[in-house]
Write the structure tokens for this entry.
Amino acid sequence: MSMRKMTYGEAVKEAMAEEMRRDPTVFLMGEDVGKAGTVFKVLLGLHDEFGDDRVIDTPIAEAGLVGLGVGAALTGSRPIVDIMFGDFIALAMDQIVNQAAKLRYMSGGQAIVPITIRSTMGAGRSSAAQHSQSLHAWLAHIPGLKVAIPSTPADAKGLFKTAVRDDNPVVIYEDKMMYALKGMVPTEEDYTIPFGQADIKREGDDITLIATSSMVHVALEAADILAEQGISAEVVDPRTLVPLDRETLIESVVKTTRAVIIDEGYKSFGITGEIASIVYNSAFDYIDAPIVRLGAMDVPVPFSKPLEDATIPTPEDVVKAVQDMKIR
Amino acid sequence: MTKTIIMPKYGLQQDNGTVVEWRVKEGDHIDKGDILLDLETDKALFEYESPESGYVRKLVAQNGEEVPVLSVIAIITDEADEAIEDLTPTSTSTPTEETRQISDTEEREPVLEAPTQRIKRSPAARRRARELNIDLAAIAGTGPGGRIVLADVELAASAAPSSTTLSRMRQAIGKTMAYSKSTIPHFYIATEIDMTDAETWRKNLAETDAIKLSVTDLFVKAAADALTQYPALNASLDGDTAVIVHDTVDIGLAVGTDDGLVVPVIPNADQAFLTDLADERAQRVEEARQGKLRGDASATFTISNLGMYGITSFTAIVNPPEAAILAVGAAISRVVPIGDTMTIAVRQIAEVTLSADHRLVDGVVAAQFLQALKQNLEDVNKLESWL
């Protein structure tokens, strides 16, 4: 497989460009996606190649632009709708939850809604409380939606291409702090990653660190520190929340007998609670220590950088959680 | 409706039973036939099935508690929230020992019970301890807050075997055998039985008529028949002086399992045809091997056959409250003199040893019994008549 080193942002753009070249019904719309290449500048160049008709700047009107996307999807296009900050998805919830997620079911399968909604998550940019939340659990809660949260450039490209080709609405979250992250990415046109396949980012025997999106890198860093202490950590990345690869998560915990689950969403009522419950139910007799969940502190994300950092799980938090289990 | 679960009485000499471990907790729903608790009598440890359906409202006896037979150990109601009826006897009924025990127990027990002491252990540690048959109570936990974790169980498993405790079943066997050996004045007599003709007959049956009988089946039937001739050996001593001569001949078979010795019972063996007896024996032994044996069947006489292991002779310990036990050795080829003509032949000879309770019988009865047994097994016509 031929590979090329690129950033996470470049991988997303490449996935999008390849799909737009491959399928003329694919187009992109959103706020500042055109000449500006988004506020994160990751889509620079797309407008030059595909022009105004396929890379469309919209007004600041999330409900409207997702509604346009749902309509386009119902009538034969494969729109990619860009919601600049995940926080703004709140404005478009009715279109996503009550329209996109429901129409295939309510039309008895006569209509499909092949829309891809891409948005961002993650704190750490001092963007304050309305631009820093990780709200992916909201949508993972809704039947009828698929939710992907890639953690590496390669996963971002492969999952994005799968999202565009999927006949169902997919929400894909990119952590805005990872756009500059570099990694090797397959360059094949048809490189895709099936949904519902977790990836073991690092193999280990003593503890399973189940981590999502940018928290995968927190977990990998923690695993390095733990290795120096003689504790072998396995890092498992579910990659998609819906569908969720329960089997891989459970098998890993059965092997290691312990788990820490790390996700940047708010800790309460979120992803980590759901995964912990699944693991408890299926691996109960193999669990040797209470499962620890790490998530964003249950507070509005502070603007102050030191305070903001304190709300997000760190490698040190993961290491401490593992040490508290007194493995050896 | 309020229903009571009482400590069952299985043996004549059984005074108490132990609630080893409840399989339900208060508030649970249970169906008739579901496992209610692990129950231990002086004879056996077994799973006790609920005789009633309903909601478990009160566990009167606690885990590990030994209580008198026929006393109430749990209360069940039809509905989860119905009031528990007063179980003390009404004025119309005569107070019996049983009802007295109910009221005693109820007075003693406060409505709210103190929480039972729980061993802090991880699920993985609990599973592994069960697999390895290790008692968690004997392990020190090294996890957070003293929790027993998987590594503690593995360590205990690799440590000296003295760190584990005797299984409940071994404890029960030990208790019964110690009681027998220290209370019953045993005496032992032995004889040799020529099994050549019986073996030939048995193998012919299997080949020509596809009737499969085991050596044990022949011994069970022959012994049961001999017991009808010498009922003094088919008896029990109740207390120091009361002799109970049983009116049925129920033969117990000593069966070794991974967990320990169990004794499945073939009831009315004197009445049964050999083929039916063989079916019954196969079924009961299989149940015993699978640990499904109930404590509710008791034998009047026991046979222990170690012939299949090549053991030529041994003595067994009487299984109380029975009067005797027969130890059967292997039938092995021996050169023996035949008849009066001083000719010799190679014959299949099995040695059997009877252990008997000297309080109930003397040597003469035991000898006559063995003689009858020998005659039964050496006479193919007799065996034939039981088919």
User: Anything to note?
Assistant: Chain B touches chain A at residues 122-127, 142-144, 149-151 (CB under 8 Å). Residues 8 and 172 of chain B are 17 Å apart (CA to CA). Chain B has nine helices and 18 strands. The mean pLDDT of chain B is 86.
